């Protein structure tokens, strides 16, 4: 297993649109294992393949307290959404920044796991937020894209300064 480097905003590779997975191979199983290890080590509650510069529709999520309930979503599609809820979000690609975003309160997602088996989950609360946040990554969208242009400009300047100081 391997820890994968996580791209940081405003890296342009975070804007790429991921392609659907067309075959369920041992390489996909390895990618999912590496992504899960990277998410747990960060630590985070979700990770999209886009964030590790792999542009395939693959997500890992674990919102459990015990960190033993990994959800793998390959080619996820939201088939039902209802209500609205505001939640404070973070992102491993924007370390140290949290802000409120409004999303659907309850969703149903259909996907496959890394072995190609079909999955359907209805989710609320943090799981629903996390699924929507990770699915946005797969279309090159980040939670900061929901913020005002002023907040986003300040954040981009902060990130560029941080990257300059890091050398
Ligand atoms: O996509 C990501 O960068 C992962 C992100 C997921 C997420 C968190 C909260 C709301 C929406 C989406 C994170 O995991 S940020 C880190 C975080 O929130 C966290 C870290 C450790 C324990 C609990 C939460
Ligand atoms: Zn994120």
Explain what you see:
This protein is an alpha+beta fold and 167 residues long. It has one domain (12-166): Peptide deformylase (Peptide Deformylase, Alpha-Beta Complex). It is built from three helices and seven strands; from the N terminus they run αβββββββαα. The two termini are 29 Å apart. Ligand K1U binds at residues 43-48, 89-93, 129-130, 133-134. Ligand K1U binds next to strand 1 and helix 2.
How do the SSEs run, as a string of H and E?
HEEEEEEEHH
Strand order of the largest sheet: 1-2-3-6-7
Detail the poorly predicted runs.
none
CATH architecture: Alpha-Beta Complex
Question: How many structural domains are formed by the residues?
Answer: 1
Q: Percentage of helical residues? A: 25-40%
CATH superfamily: Peptide deformylase
Approximately what portion of the residues adopt beta-strand conformation?
A: 25-35%
Overall, the morphology is: globular
Total of DSSP H or I helical runs spanning 4+ residues: 3
Highest-level CATH class: Alpha Beta
Euclidean distance between termini CA atoms: 29 Å
CATH topology: Peptide Deformylase
Class per helix and strand makeup: alpha+beta
Instruction: Provide the gyration radius in Å.
Output: 16 Å
Main β-sheet, in a few words? 5 strands, antiparallel
DSSP strand count = 7
